[in-house]
Structure formats: C-alpha cells, structure tokens
Amino acid sequence: MIRKEFTSFDVAAVVRELKDSILNSRVTNIYQLNDKDILLKLRGKSGESSTLMLRAGKGLYLTSYTQEKPLTPPAFCMALRKYLRGSWLVDVEQYEFERIVTLSFKSKNGALKLILELFGDGNIILVGSDGKILQALIYKRMRDRNILKGEVFLFPPSIGRNPIKISVGELSEGLKSFGELEVVRALARFLGLGGVYAEEILLRLGIDKTTKCTVLSSQQVESIYNCLKDIISQVMDRRLEPCIVLDDCGNLVDVTPMKLKRYEGLKHEAYSSFNEALDEFYSRIAVLEETAAVEMEIMNIRREIERLRRVMGEQEKALEQARQKAERYKRIGDTIYAYSMELQNLLSKFLEEEKSGKKWDDIANEVLAGKRMGLKPDIYFETFDKKSLSIIVHIDDLSFPLDLRKSLFENAARFYEESKIAGKKLEGAKEALEDTRNELREAEAKLREAELRREVKPKEALEKLAKRKVKSRKWFEKFRWFISSDGFLVLAGRDASSNEALIKRYTQPGDVVFHADVAGAPFVVIKTEGKQPSEQCLKEAAEFAAAFSRGWREGFASVDVYWVNPEQLSKTGEPGEYVPRGAFVVRGKRNWMRNTPLKMAIGAFFNGEKGEISFIGGPVDAVKAKTKNYVILVPGDVNGRELSKDILKILAAKMPKDQQPKALEAYAEEIRSLIPYGKGKISFE
Predict the structure, then answer these.
(1) β-strand 398-403 against 252-256: which pairing, if any?
(2) Is 169 part of any domain?
(3) Which one has a higher pLDDT value, 54 or 160?
(4) Please, what is the average pLDDT of the chain?
(5) What is the CATH number of the domain that holds 130?
(6) Region class of 464: left (phi > 0), else alpha (psi between -120 and 50), else beta
(7) Alpha-carbon distance 156 to 146, whole Å?
(8) Is the same domain home to 477 and 463?
(9) Whole-angstrom Cα distance, residue 39 to residue 43?
(10) pLDDT at position 47, please?
C-alpha cells in the first residue's frame, strides 16, 4: 500500500528546504492543473527559475517536470494571478508542526498569505493583510470555523500537542490519560504524529506497539521522548537522508526525509533533497494512477457499450412494432374503403335490427347463422363486443372493430389517424435509434483510443515521464545561446531584463558585442575568454543577432548588423536623454556587417548514452558543425506550434530507423522555443 499523505515530519522537512531555495523569489505566473493542484512559477533574484507544486490535501514540493496546463484557467487561478503575480515570496512556515503551510508574500496589494492545508480534503486559502479571506479553493462552513470570503481566517484546532514544545512530564501525563489504549495509537493521537512516525519511534526503541499506556514505565516514556526529539532535531537541523522506498518488485512504497527502521530490508533510492524525492515519487504515482485509470476507463466504456447495445435492441423492437402498427392501421382503413358496401350493410343490419327492438346478442346470433350459410356480408362478422358497442370483423387476414356509434367512414378515419400517430412514433423511434447508434460509435471509438493508451505499459509510461523532466540549466541557458563552429560561446538577451543583465553582469573586456540595426533588437555577445574570435565566428554571431531582431518578425531577407567592444557601451545618454532598461548608448566606431541574411538552423542528434534526442538551434554553419541532421528556417508566417511539428517530422525522417520512434516521442515544444518570434518557414533551398 503506497502512502500518499504528508506527515507533519514531511512538512517540516520540505519547508526547511524551501526556505533555503526559494525565499525572495518573484511569482512570475500561476497555473491550476485540476481541482486541487496549483503551480507557482518563481524566479529568483539571480534569474534562476523554479516551480512550486501546491497540492491541497496532499503536499508541496518543487517540481522539475513539465505539466499539462488547461487552456482556460479556472476562476480561483485567475484570482490568485490577480493578487500574487509579480509579488515576492518572503517566507514559508509550518504552522505549529501541523500539516499546514503558510506562504507569505510581499505584493502591491500589501502583505498576503497563502495557506495550504494538507489534512482531509485539503484547501488553499488566500488571506489579506487584515487577516480576512480573499479567496479560497473550497468555501465551507464548519463547526469550529468558516472558510468564507470576507471572514477572518482561523487555523483549525490542533489535533494534538505540538511535539516540538512538549516536555517529558507533559508526555508522561498525556500518555497515562489514554489508560488501556495501545501506546502506538496514543502517540499518534496525543502528538498528532500519524501512524508512521508513532510506529517508528517504538520500533527504534524495541517497545511493542500494542503495549497499554498504563503499563509504560517512566524509563520507557523518557526513551520515547528522547527518540522523538532526535527525529525532530534531525529534520530541524536538515540532517536529512531523503529517499524513495521500493518493495522487492520495485513498486513504490513510501517517500521519506530520512531512513526509517520500518523499511529496513527494502530497496532505497537516495536523493540529494527531499523536494527532489517528493517530486519523483508523486510524479511516478501520477503516471501509475493514470495507467490504472485507463483500465477503469476501459471497463466503464465497455459497460456503456453493453448498455447502449441493449438500448438499441429495445429501440429496434419498438421501431418494428411502430412500423407494423402504422402499416396495419393503414391497411384496415384501406380495407374498410375496399369493402365499404358489404361493411355498411353489416353495420346497417345491426343498427336496424336493434331499432326494431331486438337485443344485440340476438342480432349477433342471427348474423352468425347467416355466416354459417355463407351469406354476405355476414361472412365477415366474427363477434360482438357489447361493452364497446363494436362488431369485430375479419377480412383478408385482418381482424378489426367497427364502432356501431360511428359511421363506416368515421371508423376508417379513426384507423387512418391511428396509422398517422404510429407513423410519427416511428419517426421518433428512428431518430432515437440513430442517436443511440451515434453514441455507440463514439463509445467504440473511445474504447479503441483507451485500448491504445493501455498498450503503454507502466515501465514505458515511466520512461516517457523522464522526457518531461526539465533539465538542470547551466548559467548561460537563461539567455539564448549557441556554440560557434570554432567553439566560442555566443549569448543573446531574451528581453529587456536579460539584455541588461547580459551586458552588465556577464560581459567582460575582450568580449565582442553585436547589435542589429533594428529598434528593440537584443544584444549578442561572443564570450572570448581572452582568445581572438575568427571571421567565421563574427559572421555566425551577426546572423544570430539578425535572426532574433524584429527583422525576422517583419519578414526581412537581411538586415545590417554591427559589432563593438564592451567599453563602447554606456547607460549614460546625452543630457535629457532617457536610456530605458535593456538599452545602452553606443559610442565610437561601429564595425558593420552589411546585409546579414536572416536564416537559422535547428538540428537534432541522438544521445546514445541517455537514449534521447537533443535539439540545437543557431546560425546554419554553427549547427552544421554539430550535426548533419538539420533544417534551415527563414522568416515566414507558419505559427510555431505547426512549424515545430513539421521540423520534428523532417528531423526524425533523417534519422536511422531504430532512432525514429525516440525522435517522434520528443517534445515539439522544445523545438518551438528555438524558433525566432514563434513563427517562420522551412527553407528547402
């Protein structure tokens, strides 16, 4: 049985790691993945990005996996964006060693707190500087507090004593108060530890967990207290040994911030941080649950198909009955008209005899006598229904009543009307049957699609999960970059902020700075490391500067580019001149590279060691130096989403057959990030 819930110790461990890694980060965006999971995209002061996963009722941790985000953000997500986007995360705290985390933000809206509740169904609550609730994932009234907009936020009553603050005497008194209750249950309840750590303490001490509280010695209580404090201090002092626990078959069992005695003998996967272990553990669970959900989905679809087939069978019967009824009633009407003279005589005979004083039964007997003698119209008579005052006649294998209170043609009209009603029901039945057939076709299509997904075995699903992992980035990957054909690192700003940082913090004397002669173009820097770049390197850097200028967006074939030395750049303009963020004043000689063509290449190569496809983008010659498998792009209007898919297909087709499946599984999104201004077209020249 996989343990999925956070314990108080898990919360304490992850909060301490978060304090070291994400404090003073800015919230750049917020996403809501489903009804319980929120992603906070963060950027640190030095530019590093991180993603914090908040899971109501489950946990929190930094994630390095890409997540599928809904196209339309839910209302709660939009509210969080309104209040928190652009704010600074200034603190992360655990409330009273409970499964509650408070994230504190400094924003234009004042001091805000985001409360994450990890117990029960969980909740995420945004609280203003006045302590009142601004937004909540789930609004509800409870016995001890309300989670309602505009009300003051109250923490829930503690489920136990805070183990950090308790004394050995208080622990002794508390355990004694549980009387005959087993010590493991008493510890779990009294300190709110949960079963895992209550059992762990007793296992480490060799105390039988079923021991009654009344028989615990003072020495045993003291040992329990000391062991508890040891575990707490291990977490608080960050002396962690994060690991994922697996059973003998390699199945997930647990994720813990330290090694636990209860899992001795089982396999442990060690991680450098508890956040990393949590991310891996819960991401794997999500994949495995998805494969299990597919099985459940298939079972439900099959049930639905069976139901629809039963409904279709019933509808087909009803359709046939309606068709037969419509035909029968029309035939009766037609028969009445075809035999109108005989039937009118038969009706008249009954009515006239009745007027002369005869009883209906006597008349019927007389007609039956005539029938036996073969007289017309008596031969058509079958019986008399006294209750409805109708005679039943039989003609051409049809038996039907004629109401003596109506004329012959009124009787015919009644049957035609019944035929019309049955005909309308027939049309309705046909429509209902066609609707059911369509539903069945849709269900069968869903079944085929689900069965295809089922073919992805858990092992394969976990392999695909690895492809979603965001690779750890080197310092220069915050910029656009490439390695020139002769080995120089070339960087370009992505926006005004990174432009500013590139020149101010990462450009040294001896480097070469490029700029396209187009407003708003990024700076491009060759990192020379004291070496002299070749003419070829200068050409490639100029092409890079041209490709990521607005000339690409405007569809130019070429632009002029110049290069200068770093000392020629200044943030000081002429008197009265404002130099905006990301811009610099260039003084002195500019070295022009006229009519630099706007083109670039995206290439791919198979990393056999990692068993995955890697993509590179940059000037054509620089990419050609790394791989023979590349595509050349020029300005165009094909959007990045479609263009990246086309590029992926072309690159995959050029690979050996055994590598093509891996290539086609790669994320087109990685290619899309390399396309200037998110659009272009493939050049086949």
Answers:
(1) unpaired
(2) no
(3) 54
(4) 90
(5) 2.30.310.10
(6) alpha
(7) 10
(8) no
(9) 13
(10) 66
Query: How many residues can be counted in the chain?
Result: 685
528 Cα distance to chain centroid: 45
- SS in 3 state form for 604-655? EEEECCCCEEEEEEECHHHHHCCCCCEEEEEEEEEEHHHHHHHHHHHHHHCC
| Short-list 466, 452, 458, 69, CA closest to 290 | 458
Three-state secondary structure call for residue 140 = strand
Choose one of 443, 471, 499: the last residue of a domain. 471
CB 103 within 8 A of CB 111: no
Q: What is the pLDDT of residue 648?
A: 87
Coil/strand/helix, residue 568? helix
- What would the 3-class secondary structure string for 14-31 be? HHHHHHHHCCCEEEEEEE
- Grouping H, G, I as helix, E, B as strand and the rest as coil, residue 588 is coil
Where do the DSSP E strands lie in 33-132? 37-43, 49-55, 59-62, 88-94, 100-107, 110-117, 123-127
- Neighbour-count burial of 144, counting CB atoms closer than 10 A to its CB (0-12 exposed, 13-18 middle, 19+ buried): exposed
Asked if residue 543 and residue 462 are part of one domain, the reply reads no
How many structural domains does the chain have?
4
Alpha-carbon separation of residue 412 from 325, 341, 384, 401 (angstroms): 15, 13, 18, 10
Determine the pLDDT at residue 295: 81
Of the residues 471, 496, 530, which one is the last residue of a structural domain?
471
pLDDT for 622 equals 96
The C-alpha R_g of the chain, in whole angstroms, comes to: 41
Tell me the percentage of the chain whose pLDDT exceeds 70.
94
Identify which of 89, 92, 87 has the alpha carbon closest to the alpha carbon of residue 19: 92
Q: Give 415's Cβ-side CA count (13 Å radius).
A: 24
Alpha-carbon gap, residue 647 to 623, rounded angstroms: 15
User: Are 544 and 589 within one domain?
Assistant: yes
For residue 617, being part of any structural domain is answered with yes
pLDDT at 641: 82
Same domain, 442 and 517: no
Q: Is residue 512 part of a domain?
A: yes
Mean pLDDT calculated for residue range 542-558:
96
- Residue 452 and residue 401 share a domain: yes
Do the domain assignments include residue 227?
A: no
**In a shared domain, residues 490 and 461:** no
So what's the pLDDT on residue 116? 98
Residues 467 and 487 placed together within one structural domain of the fold:
no
Asked if the model's pLDDT at residue 500 lies above 80, the reply is yes
Residue among 543, 500, 540 at smallest CA distance from 523: 500
Give the β-pairing of 381-385 and 390-395.
antiparallel
Q: How far apart are CA 361 and CA 386, in angstroms?
A: 8
pLDDT digits (tens, 9 = 90+) for 8-47: 999 999 999 999 899 999 999 999 999 999 999 998 876 6
Question: Same structural domain for residues 449 and 483?
Answer: no
Amino acid at 421: I
How many angstroms separate the CA atoms of 340 and 336, rounded?
5
Name the residue range of residue 364's domain: 322-471
Over the range 198-216, which residues count as b (16 or more CB within 10 Å of their CB) and which as e? bbbbbbbeebeeeeebeeb
Q: For the chain, percent helix, then strand, then coil, each to nearest 5? A: 45, 25, 30
